[in-house]
Each structure stands twice: as structure tokens, then as C-alpha cells.
Amino acid sequence: MSEHGYEGGRLNLPFVGICTFGKYPYVEDWNAIDADVAVLGAPYDFGCQWRSGARMGPRAIREASTLFSFGHAGAYDHEDDITYLEPSKVKIVDIGDADIIHTDTVNSHANIEYGVRKILGAGAIPVVMGGDHSVNIPCINAFDDQEPIHVVQIDAHLDFVDERHGVRFGHGNPMRRAAEKPYVTGLSQIGIRNVSSTARDGYVDAREMGSDIQSVRQVRKLGIDGMLDRIPKGARYYLTIDIDAFDPSIAPGTGTPSHGGFIYYEVLELIDGLARRGSIVGVDLVEVAPDYDPTGCTSTLAAQILMNTIGRILHHK
User: Which pTM value belongs to this model?
Assistant: First the structure.
């Protein structure tokens, strides 16, 4: 008889119980966060220029994540010969959602920033589920009293618009806002392709402000190791993943799908290499819009990539 964790306690199947992220404990009191990683929902999508619906992303990702709730014995990966997320070695909590005030970008973003600051103040790594990509702006704001960070963006779109019709905090602006921060040492913008929300002058500005921009085809030509070699080694990385970085054949549930995207293992291997290359100190995953995801495959992909990202961050930390 084996000695794995399923021999004791509840079986706790994915369709049973409350849908916290990965069925990890829920912490309501943000002054009592005691964890290696704390997951925060940011259900805000008023920054969209096209299809809205990402406000429902955190709820859908949480539900999908129950499929990967390895609470008994962790997650053994036979390719790596590593058991990730062993309960005896890691502590992960779900602190719920930042409060969103309808039509109020400034205060909704402030509430997201507050949540990330509470996580950082507790010494945990924030993992934020959007929401549209504008939620990255308050996430990056919260790092202003931390050591410098290098932003790694995996996305179809550059998101480097400075201002459009007075809008500076929508989902086309976050990487521009990040590049302006004195504590952001540079950006690696990976997967950028096709028609972007950013015009040519934005690309020029991005490169002048320290961005390395690579499309999916350019990454495939470089190879994953070649792409990793372009990212500063030994740095503190903030990782932001837009689900539209993946090809819509596997991730249709998003507001601005863009064909020609990554497949699952390309992104997983990139994240695994990043976790080995330096320290991933913050993560957000954005733009999951479940109303455009009839099979639930986009939410499942988001949950799976987050689970694997957390596992690799903590294992290689």
C-alpha cells in the first residue's frame, strides 16, 4: 500500500466545495496574510477598447483551478521528475477580490493596488487574476517601495499607448505606464504580433525606453533558450501574461483574440526558464473573458498556467 495523501482525510473532488483558487485556504483578513503566495482577483474590465467580459475572469479561473487542486500530495511532473506544490513545503492562500467600483477607474485601481501592497507587506508573492490588462498598472504601482524589477510581458499586443482621447489607464496603456517607473529597469515584450493597439510611434518609444520586442515567429526562430538569453539574468522579474498571447485555437475566451499565438508548452518552457534565470516576484494573468469561452478551455488554460507558474517559482526560489 502506498503512502500518498489520498489514504487519509476527504477525497475533496474538483466539483465539491467552495471555489477558491486551487482550493487553497481563503484569507478574508488582509492583515493576517501568512503565505508564500497570495492570489488576488481583480475583476475590472472598464479599460477595454473592444469586447468586455474579463471582469468575470477571476471567478472562471478559480472554478477551473479546482481541477488542479493537488491538496493531498502536490503535483508530480514525470518529465521534470519534480513534485511541485507539495503542501508540506509551500503555503498558498486566496485573499479574494479587490473591490471594484463600477465606472470608477481611479478608485478601482487603487483598491487593486492596496491588495497587492498588503500581499507584499506580508512577504508573499502576489498572483493577480484579471480583469483586463489595465489591472497591471496598479500592480506595478505597488512595487514602488521594493527593489527594482524587470517586466516580462507575454502578450499579443504591445500595450504601449501613451494617451488616447485622454485615456491613460486603459488596457492599451499598461506597459507604457510601467516603463515610466524609475524602479522598472526594462521590459521584455514577448509574442507581439499582427494588428496591435499601439501605433508605430509607440514601438519606437518602447525601444527607446528600454523594451525588447519579439513576436511569436521571432521567438520560434530564436528558440526558448535564445529568448531567455535576451532577458537580464539574475534579475527580479514581474511577469504579466495576457491570455491572448496564446493562439485563439486554444484560448478563444478573450476580448481581443489574435491568431498566430503561442501554444501551451512554449509559454510553460519560457516561464520555467525565467524562474530558473532569476526571481519572479509578482505575476498577473489577464483578459480571460469566459462568456466567449463555451467549452471552458481558456479558463482551464489560465488556471493550469498559473498553477505551473506558482509551482516553478516556489521550487526554484
Answer: 0.96
